[in-house]
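// run 5 | inverse folding | seed 20
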């Protein structure tokens, strides 16, 4: 009986040893190290979601106003609360008037927030938003086609004539012109009061600021908001020659 028990124990030990040494063909999911799973997911997210520089275009908008003025502004490709990056172009425009004149660009100014408030649009970074002010030649009507032409020329210049540190592509996104009774909105919808005075004094009138202020009819063609018309004595003469 002892010999039989001995042989039985030896056989059982061999069977258990064989079962323990036999490899598992398809380990369960839980057999995969948790650390390896986490590392793989992190790498996958980084490669699929990290944006490449220059992968999104900077959008460009325009709007026509009275006196054949057209304003053009840019919106950042990622952070839409900021202007598009145009600093190299701004420096070139300010130091080389020949380039600006070819495009019809007369000034770089702050964007106005709304007609009844003489304050600029503020970007997400806290700085005033800027726009490019164009002046259509005499006899050229501010039609959607003409505004698109002048804006597209500006975009072509940015895309082809300006050197950028990182890839920067500009695309036209829309004409934001507001019309009232079939006419483009007046200057105080888009320009700050000081810039209105400077624009009129340099490009529109041969008269003095005092002469313009005396004409109610003329003031009605300049301002759509009565508040700005009432404030004329506080800024028109002061900034009339600011751009000369």
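// decoded
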């Amino acid at each position: 009986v002892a010999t039989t028990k001995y042989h039985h124990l030896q056989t059982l030990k061999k069977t258990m040893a064989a079962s323990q040494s036999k490899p598992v063909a398809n380990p369960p999911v839980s057999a995969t190290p948790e650390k390896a799973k986490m590392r793989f997911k992190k790498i996958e997210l980084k490669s699929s979601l990290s944006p490449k520089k220059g992968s999104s275009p900077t959008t460009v908008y325009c709007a026509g106003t009275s006196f054949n003025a057209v304003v053009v502004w840019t919106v950042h490709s990622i952070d839409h609360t900021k202007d598009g990056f145009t600093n190299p172009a701004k420096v070139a425009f300010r130091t080389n008037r020949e380039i600006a004149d070819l495009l019809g660009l007369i000034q770089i100014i702050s964007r106005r927030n709304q007609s009844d408030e003489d304050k600029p649009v503020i970007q997400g970074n806290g700085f005033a938003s800027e726009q490019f002010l164009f002046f259509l030649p005499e006899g050229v009507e501010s039609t959607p086609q003409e505004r698109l032409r002048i804006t597209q020329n500006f975009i072509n210049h940015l895309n082809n004539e300006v050197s950028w540190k990182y890839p920067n592509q500009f695309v036209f996104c829309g004409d934001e012109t507001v019309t009232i009774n079939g006419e483009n909105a007046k200057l105080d919808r888009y320009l700050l009061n000081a810039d209105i005075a400077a624009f009129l004094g340099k490009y529109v009138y041969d008269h003095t600021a005092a002469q313009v202020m005396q004409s109610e009819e003329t003031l009605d063609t300049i301002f759509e908001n009565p508040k700005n018309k009432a404030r004329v004595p506080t800024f028109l003469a002061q900034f009339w020659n600011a751009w000369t």
